[in-house]
Design brief:
The structure is a homodimer. By secondary structure, chain A is of the alpha+beta class. Chain A has a domain at about 1-225: Carbamate kinase (3-Layer(aba) Sandwich). Chain A contains 12 helices and 19 strands. Chain A has helices at about 1-15, 30-40, 45-70, 80, 100-110, 135-145, 180-185, 195-205, 255-265, 295-310, 340-350, 370-380, and strands at about 20, 75, 85, 95-100, 110-115, 120, 125-130, 150-155, 175-180, 210, 220-225, 235-240, 240-250, 270-275, 285-295, 315-320, 320-330, 355-360, 360-370. In chain A, strands 8-10-11-9 form a 4-stranded mixed β-sheet. A 4-stranded antiparallel β-sheet of chain A has the order 12-17-19-18. In chain A, strands 14-15-13-16 form a 4-stranded antiparallel β-sheet, with helices on one face. In chain A, a hairpin with an 8-residue loop joins strand 14 (about 270-275) and strand 15 (about 285-295). In chain A, helix 1 crosses helix 3 (about 45-70), helix 2 runs antiparallel to helix 3 (about 45-70) and helix 9 packs across helix 10. The longest helix of chain A has 25 residues, at about 45-70. Chain A is globular. Chain A starts with a helix and ends in a 13-residue tail after the last helix. The interface between A and B is medium-sized, with 32 and 33 residues.
């Protein structure tokens, strides 16, 4: 807290208005959830939010005190005090509007505004929370509301990397990245920024600076990079959170696939990669493969098997030992052949591809999880990401 | 929490609307204050309140969850949600108004309202707290706002006793007591109810039932007892929190005493018992004795000694080994001789009286603290308090 307060005061002395958005202290949210789960395995959601919001309230008060103790001026502001209006979806509320005026009037008094992240109020005045990692979203939303020059997100890493440095020693910190690339990387398992915070930053054009809490090095700037010359591949991501589901010998009729995925959607289960194999020669059946989050699998297994039975006894197979590796880059829009280069790099390592999905700026391949590190390193260096900006995309 | 929730649900099933006012969990407020004092010995007051208020917020959410877990309906309500308006005196704010409508609308839905005690908001929307023990005051204030039939205060004792049962085995639980007597007892060191909560109850005519959290026995009803036949002495209290200060050989001139106490009042030090000895025969000096809270003594010592010097070298003596024992009873208004009976009972035990102060319904004597237990027992049984209502006051 002292480091945070000192940094904020330094920033203020440099002539900036400073707003801090704070999360709960390490372990605090888990402590609170633990108290709730002693009462019930499924505690009432409205009360979960009233409970969890105290974590950030404690942090905000303590950080403001620390600024005072260092001779500065600060004021803690809670969700309802800043009027962070959200919908009423307790524990995973979405921000609708924020009043910038309260933060602005605090800044105008020369005070540092210390805003409790992660929390808001619904239209009835109930306390809501934005779900885990919601403090990033709060930060971007406040930055948008007061039209801040930059939203700095402090993390335990130096910035956004070309891939996970833990498994690829040649991973480099990215200096600048576009919102769209960051969004794809976040969706694909890069944990540095919450997807919703990136979406919000893109929508409002808030420049986001992802940097380390532990040093003053510049981190990664996430901005609208459309105008700049883009590297072809900006980063390599991987995601082990999904499991593969295969429906074997499904009748090859129109509407069959829609019936399965429609019922999954009703249960709020997101299906990611979907491949329908071509009908076997002369046959009337096909195989349907898709991936779902491992955490969703248990609650949709019965539904899938039920559907499979109704479809005429199709067998169902599950495989949790898979990983999705992806390459992301704005440059793919204008460079052909990136996907086939990816397949070639994987094949050169003897890695079998189980499924493929693509978007305008990314290609994802599903492979056996035992190849995770091998595949990430091969793609990272194969696309020249070890060599720095401008060197990428020489494939 | 389970016991609280079960009791509330039972009360609701009996046909009552139920509002719970909750305090922080045991140890929680101290934990939070400890965090603040790690930052600064004198943390900023506004932030202290934002911090401390989380204690009751956590309790309110957990109690509401517990009611839900038991199959009932409940809703936690925070100070700002109920609009408990206070002044801006952080850490010791006073309640100005409470909107009953939010609590009422919760009750009208068949829900138990679980209100976070101890907290409010000032006119600018800052979170305030009422000071230690403020939850009792919150309870009475909410009861007044919604015109509740009764405000039950749950404590770790069975009710209000004729004196402290820890030092007087014949102490009895009082069934009914007037606001005025309760107010005197609370001022004189009986810890069961906060003075401000009794004042507020008296002002709004809220009947207060002081009872045990651990059983269903009726406790003590605090009401407007004016119409009932009163016992002469309702209780015996003692207070060890004060120290005696003696100014010796002060010039016996008009305005001298006013000068001393005026400066103490400016420093917000309350002076309790004051005795000015008659001038010594033929002399021009006098002795002035008074008591102040031990906690105030350190911060007014320099001032007192300074004043004493300016008054011509009067000596100052301190004595912390004192106790104030008091008898309280509405009946004193109409019964003469109660004070002299008190002096007689103390003299019979060989206890020297160092100072005396009286009000319409109480007499206090300052004695050496070593006589505390002896004096309390002698007064308690001497005024017949060991024998039950109606037996008292036979002096």
């Amino acid at each position: 807290m002292r480091a945070v307060a000192e940094r904020a005061l330094r920033c203020q002395r440099d002539g900036n208005d400073v707003v801090l958005i704070v999360s709960a202290m390490s372990g605090e949210t888990n402590r609170l959830l633990g108290l709730a789960h002693q009462i019930s395995p499924t505690p009432e959601m409205r009360e979960m939010d009233a409970l969890a919001a105290t974590g950030e309230q404690v942090s905000a008060a303590l950080v403001a005190m620390t600024v005072h103790a260092l001779g500065g001026k600060a004021r803690s502001l809670l969700g309802h005090q800043v009027n962070v209006q959200t919908d009423a979806a307790f524990t995973k509320a979405r921000i609708q509007t924020i009043e910038g005026s309260k933060v602005r009037s605090t800044l105008d008094k020369g005070e540092i505004a210390v805003v409790a992240g992660f929390q808001g109020v619904d239209p009835e005045g109930n306390i809501t929370t934005l779900g885990r990692g919601g403090s990033d979203t709060s930060a971007v939303a406040v930055a948008a509301a007061i039209k801040a020059d930059v939203c700095e997100i402090y993390t335990d890493v130096d910035g956004v990397y070309t891939t996970d440095p833990n498994i690829c020693p040649s991973a480099r910190k990215i200096e600048r990245i576009s919102y769209e690339e960051m969004l794809e990387l976040a969706s694909l398992g890069a944990k540095v920024l919450q997807i919703r915070s990136v979406e919000l930053a893109m929508k409002h054009g808030v420049p986001v600076h992802v940097r380390s809490s532990f040093n003053d090095n510049p981190g990664t700037m996430v901005t609208n990079e459309e105008g700049l010359e883009s590297v072809v591949v900006a980063g390599v991501a991987y995601d082990k959170s999904e499991a593969k589901v295969q429906l074997i010998n499904v009748p090859d009729r129109p509407g069959i696939v829609a019936a399965i995925f429609g019922s999954l959607a009703e249960r709020n289960v997101s299906v990611d990669m979907i491949i329908q194999s071509p009908s076997r020669e002369g046959g009337t059946t096909t195989d349907v493969t898709f991936t779902v989050a491992k955490t969703d699998l248990t609650r949709c297994k019965d539904l899938i098997e039920d559907k499979a039975r109704n479809l005429g006894g199709a067998a169902v197979e599950y495989d949790p030992d898979i990983v999705k590796v992806s390459i992301v880059g704005l440059g793919m829009r204008s460079h052909a052949g990136i996907a086939s280069e990816m397949f070639r790099l994987l094949a050169a390592e003897g890695i079998n591809i189980q499924a493929i999905s693509t978007s305008e700026i990314k290609v994802s391949c599903l492979i056996h999880s035992k190849y995770t590190e091998l595949a990430v390193r091969a793609l990272h260096d194969g696309f020249g990401l070890d060599k720095g900006p401008g060197a990428g995309g020489q494939a």
